[in-house]
Amino acid sequence: MSNLETSAxxxxxxxxxxxxxxxxxxxxxSVPLESNFPYQLSxxxxxxGLDVAKPHIIAVTGWTTSELQAAIKAESLKQKFGLVTxxxxxNNQYRGESLDTYRKEFKALLQTAIDFADGNxxxxxxxxxxxxxxxxxxxxxxxxxxxxxxxIDAFNAINKEETxxxxxxxxxxxxxxxxxxxxxxxxxxxxxxxxxKMHAEWVDSLTPAVVKxxx
Length: 215
Prior knowledge:
By secondary structure, the protein is of the alpha/beta class. Helices cover about 50% and strands about 10% of the residues. The chain is built from 10 helices and 5 strands; from the N terminus they run αβααβαβααβααβαα. The protein has helices at about 5-15, 25, 35-45, 65-75, 90-95, 100-115, 135-140, 145-165, 175-180, 195-215; strands at about 20, 55-60, 85, 125, 170. A 5-stranded parallel beta sheet has the order 2-1-3-4-5, sandwiched between helices. α3 (about 35-45) crosses α10 (about 195-215) and α4 packs parallel to α6 (about 100-115). The longest helix has 21 residues, at about 145-165.
């Protein structure tokens, strides 16, 4: 191994590795990759004196809990991570899937996240589901938007309950997402997802807990 390779290996070993699990809100649909919340979180943590690697992301727009589970299994990822985030469930709500199914699959994903964190629950962070009903797409969808909001709240009640029961950090970004109804700059160009500015707000909410746990 050359000196350059040795140096690179040492630097890698000293970085906090980061795994982000989710759907469109994690991958950052309709925003540049470096503007999604995992990349912005990594950058902000580095600015806070932590040595965090770029995130490894397992997330695709449209995924439900079961599809995320299947993708994780298919990837056969053996690595352990110093930081894991989980944000999943909007597509369960959108497709009208049951709360009972969501609870069962979310609990399983939460355990998977803990396993990826090598059993260290303090390094796992769950983020609530944003409310897509406030977006231009939602407003023109013909859906009962009060029902959408109530369903989002019901799914979030489950993921919050299960997260806190495990003693894991929970960050509620849903109220921030609802500000998009009167703040067009929080909406991405597709009219359905959220802008880099909104992703940055989510990071601002998440950062204090992560810094406290990792420093």
